[in-house]
Amino acid sequence: MTRVAILGGTGYTALELIRILLRHPDVQITAVTSRSETGHIGVVHPSLLGRLDLKLENLSPAQLRDRADVVFGCLPHVASMEVVPQLLDVGLKVIDLSADYRLNDAAVYEQWYGHAHTDTGRLQSTVYGLPELFADRIPGQQLIANPGCYTSTSILALAPLLAGRLIEPIGIIIDAKSGVSGAGRTPKLNTLFAEANENFTAYSVGNHRHTPEIEQVLTTASGQKVEVIFTPHLVPMDRGIFATIYATPTKVVDQKSLLEQIRSFYAGKPFVRVTDQIPTTKAVSGTNYCDITARVVRGKVVVMAVLDNLIKGASGVAVQNFNLVCGYPEETALIC
Amino acid sequence: MTRVAILGGTGYTALELIRILLRHPDVQITAVTSRSETGHIGVVHPSLLGRLDLKLENLSPAQLRDRADVVFGCLPHVASMEVVPQLLDVGLKVIDLSADYRLNDAAVYEQWYGHAHTDTGRLQSTVYGLPELFADRIPGQQLIANPGCYTSTSILALAPLLAGRLIEPIGIIIDAKSGVSGAGRTPKLNTLFAEANENFTAYSVGNHRHTPEIEQVLTTASGQKVEVIFTPHLVPMDRGIFATIYATPTKVVDQKSLLEQIRSFYAGKPFVRVTDQIPTTKAVSGTNYCDITARVVRGKVVVMAVLDNLIKGASGVAVQNFNLVCGYPEETALIC
Amino acid sequence: MTRVAILGGTGYTALELIRILLRHPDVQITAVTSRSETGHIGVVHPSLLGRLDLKLENLSPAQLRDRADVVFGCLPHVASMEVVPQLLDVGLKVIDLSADYRLNDAAVYEQWYGHAHTDTGRLQSTVYGLPELFADRIPGQQLIANPGCYTSTSILALAPLLAGRLIEPIGIIIDAKSGVSGAGRTPKLNTLFAEANENFTAYSVGNHRHTPEIEQVLTTASGQKVEVIFTPHLVPMDRGIFATIYATPTKVVDQKSLLEQIRSFYAGKPFVRVTDQIPTTKAVSGTNYCDITARVVRGKVVVMAVLDNLIKGASGVAVQNFNLVCGYPEETALIC
Amino acid sequence: MTRVAILGGTGYTALELIRILLRHPDVQITAVTSRSETGHIGVVHPSLLGRLDLKLENLSPAQLRDRADVVFGCLPHVASMEVVPQLLDVGLKVIDLSADYRLNDAAVYEQWYGHAHTDTGRLQSTVYGLPELFADRIPGQQLIANPGCYTSTSILALAPLLAGRLIEPIGIIIDAKSGVSGAGRTPKLNTLFAEANENFTAYSVGNHRHTPEIEQVLTTASGQKVEVIFTPHLVPMDRGIFATIYATPTKVVDQKSLLEQIRSFYAGKPFVRVTDQIPTTKAVSGTNYCDITARVVRGKVVVMAVLDNLIKGASGVAVQNFNLVCGYPEETALIC
């Protein structure tokens, strides 16, 4: 039995984490923290009514250490790097869902996030928690940087074809579409129902923070410099990411060879489903699956990938990382 | 040509007012005010891009008098009663969309709105701007209290049957459902897309502020004390109100006699459509219509009424009032 | 291990059944039937890709007996009563999700469903599968009539107050709102996205088929004749039912005493959550919970209840019945 | 006054046409036809209740000639080319909203639509009704081929940059997203609410019928062979198209020069709004506007364009064409 605490319990990723961890036979949730709220978890998240008898608490690292073995960090960036070093110092293991430990380069972090990084010593060594690529590095780690949602979708779609040298690494276009829960639970004008509903738009065109993360991981994983044009869009639905990706093949390819390469790359990986059909976000909603297909259109490679931004894009992969870190079977609590 | 100013231009009712008034052949919009924003109206409301060349301004009553003949007040309650007296003092006509001048009784206002009313002298004399009931009192008025959205739906559905003494005035149940735009454009947790979408709930059960307004107007209009049980609900859609109303008949009635009474009551009224079919909010979306039908189920009278909360429930009826106040044909700019 | 077959595998209730049963440690799904389709289950229901390696088949009762111990019937009414007797004759246990065995009285069935019942001999003896009321009668049964979705919501909300004689059994108003999945997966005009989205309407006012079912079960359960006015509405969301119920108290009651009676009635029942808050459909979406609260408004009792029409309203309660029939713990596979 | 008939009155484009034409001061709608339905237009389209007193009729070309001067054809492809020649023969003017007269080449038509064209003699001479490009050719024509919705979005976005030789004409990627009303009013599984809601997917990847139409018109308009990779997606909203378009610049460009070229190209065109902001489908919903912006991202040109698929993408531009054909001011009935 592993005792688990969740840091920053009011948001959607915390809610999904709790839902998943309540299914985990070897986990006991012992604390859920918040700096702003103190209510019962069943009042803050009514879907948890009767399922978890905890109040939100404001706990110090020392208090957390007394209660938990592993901490899931659901804090915003900057806030996360302020507390993670203290958690590590008291001996806790941390799965950090923020962006603070994803980028290797402090200068790149500062450029995209507008804050100087205050824990630069850990940037190079922290393992990027995308188990389909780095499963062998995750077991036993004390700190895992859980990937971004757009990032996982894009990387899972592209890694096999880059690894197989089937597509050019430069000039890849990622046209990505996300449900609104990706924007979080803090009230903002553009995510109000009456603004986002019956609406479709792009945002952060050319400057979304997942861009350097996608490029860094794909560059590392494929051993060649990768450059992408990344355009995120907001879809009037709760959850789901659909990425339509356009790349130039390095040689003549067809749909069959693309799918074979992707299937072979993910052989034995339980959460990637390579499909002949066009994937839909609905088919992966609430699950830890990423569904991928590919087509060739007028000589261009078109890869399409979907996942649930809150599960495989955040809290599901966090538990997948947790399982690998702690030595539980990778799929525990994640097939439902 | 009447010069018109809109007070409080950032919200949804202001946006709809502008859209309607741009169609009005005898109106010139000369000012749109805001205390918090100063941007161009085409930036604040992108749908107005290229349609109205005005910036949001913070204008005094004197400045407004120099620019306009009539002011539409889209301020929140309390804010409205602070400025309306000044507007009237400088000679402006005011169509006030807030709740501040709807209730006749200052004590009732204070009880439901939690603020002492500061312009009590006008409460008795202000005309309630529901033209289907009070069209003869509206022309020439300097101040009109524009009705609430739930209120108009409920009153329009019930007034004919109460007037005809076909239903008991006590114990009427109004089960009302509204799209989310009714909650306004200020970011709040419960109206975030990811909260309101794929969700249905009730709110303000037994204590919604439109309750005393419904009762006051129906009591006045029917000459008998009316009491309602009013339950509002939030529907995951932008706009539209559907009221399902249950009342006890005073004698044996059938569907035909109910519809005849409602049809006869609204004869010659251009914006109420009495229908044999079950109304839908979609059929009135974007329009100034209120569609009504009635049924008898197990001896109970069931009245169903729909309108667009932003149009017939707010800005459309405001222009209807404006037309009557200024002597334009009632339907001007409102049939589209 | 119990071998399970699903009859009529193309619809939403079958999909949800499969999802739930895949979590059940003691169940093996051995067949999914369809008379119209023959594709792989992962193509018909892409969310099941890689999760269940079966093709849709058209199987006879004898073939089903060779493959399965228990059959879940997801056929439409009429179709169900044509095949259920054959399944029972070959010794299969049947959880029937259709309406065919819910009503005790063949004449009432014919009146509301427009077909003469062809298996009248079983109507009196078939157990109505609402475990919160009839758990002691379900174990060991060969045939269970799984309740309707509106029905379960209404009965669970009203049974405690009727049992406690706190409300009058006549004149109860049930104003119910349902997501669109309740209408099934057969393409129809009124459930097209472009019709149902941004729309709210009532339907089957005064003549919905769940009316006699609600009345029969509440009459049986409470020992007094119950009559309801039932109005269903269509909400633009996938799933969820919200029932707002108005009843006349038999004596002066307050919120506290109502909640106490409901809590006490459901003590030990794992899937009913009595709450002080207003319930929301989102809090029970994807779960087998029914959340209930109550208020007193102007002397009327207002009960509000929510459930997921596809889970607690159909496939979840079907598995709950299955567990009780087969002797598995009631909650198996249903807490997620 | 021009008498107008609408052929195929049950669909969404017919409904929008009627709504727009009811605002037209010089139009009288004299007939709405259907081969399948005979109901009153206010029953088939409840939003038209009380607005148009016509029943759906099945009328011959000769009967139509006695009633109307101009016919709007809202029939499906193939059905349209069967009747349009007869309408022209009896002297009617026709604005055809189907795809039958859009492509110049009968072989291309047959390849993409799977039917031999039966009126090939008119394919070369029929004017393509995109007024922003071909306004000078439209006046006085007897037959206008009204453009497709994706087509107009794509062409309006790309024509200025191709005309200015700012982008390469080959390898243009059009990633387009459409609301569900674009799929029409005929019930189909994939456009059911419970399928399309909370879902996002691509369809017809590499083989959508608007591809040859986009290429033909852009090739003609720009005088150079244009080739596109076109990927349509389905968005869970009623209406709106958002196209994100990626092209390779012919020389170094910046956002300013792109916007200047687009602005200059559309100078004096009332329905194209070039904007610095990212456009949103909501800002053009219900209007005849197409909003366009452009960006440069990592050396690629990214053009974004939005329009309402039922208005500027279908019925609005049809009335714009009608106005030009008949000599009315282009904007009549289209600014609202």
UniProtKB/TrEMBL annotation, chains A, B, C, D:
Pathway participation: Amino-acid biosynthesis; L-arginine biosynthesis; N(2)-acetyl-L-ornithine from L-glutamate: step 3/4
SUPFAM superfamilies: Glyceraldehyde-3-phosphate dehydrogenase-like, C-terminal domain (SSF55347), NAD(P)-binding Rossmann-fold domains (SSF51735)
Semialdehyde dehydrogenase NAD-binding domain sequence ranges: 3-141
InterPro entries: AGPR (IPR050085), AGPR_dimerisation_dom (IPR058924), AGPR_type-1 (IPR000706), NAD(P)-bd_dom_sf (IPR036291), Semialdehyde_DH_NAD-bd (IPR000534)
SMART domains, alphabetized: Semialdhyde_dh
Keyword Iron: no
Pfam (any one): Semialdhyde_dh
Alphabetical UniProt keywords: Amino-acid biosynthesis, Arginine biosynthesis, Cytoplasm, NADP, Oxidoreductase
Catalysed reactions listed for this entry: N-acetyl-L-glutamate 5-semialdehyde + phosphate + NADP(+) = N-acetyl-L-glutamyl 5-phosphate + NADPH + H(+)
GO function terms (MF aspect): N-acetyl-gamma-glutamyl-phosphate reductase activity; NAD binding; NADP+ binding
Signal peptide: none
Active-site residues per Swiss-Prot or TrEMBL entry: C149
GO biological process: L-arginine biosynthetic process
Top EC class, one word: oxidoreductase
Entries under PANTHER family matching the protein: N-ACETYL-GAMMA-GLUTAMYL-PHOSPHATE REDUCTASE, CHLOROPLASTIC-RELATED, N-ACETYL-GAMMA-GLUTAMYL-PHOSPHATE REDUCTASE, CHLOROPLASTIC-RELATED-RELATED
Function: Catalyzes the NADPH-dependent reduction of N-acetyl-5-glutamyl phosphate to yield N-acetyl-L-glutamate 5-semialdehyde.
Family annotation (HAMAP family): ArgC_type1 (MF_00150)
Designated name of the protein: N-acetyl-gamma-glutamyl-phosphate reductase
Organism whose genome encodes this protein: Caulifigura coniformis
Name of the coding gene: argC
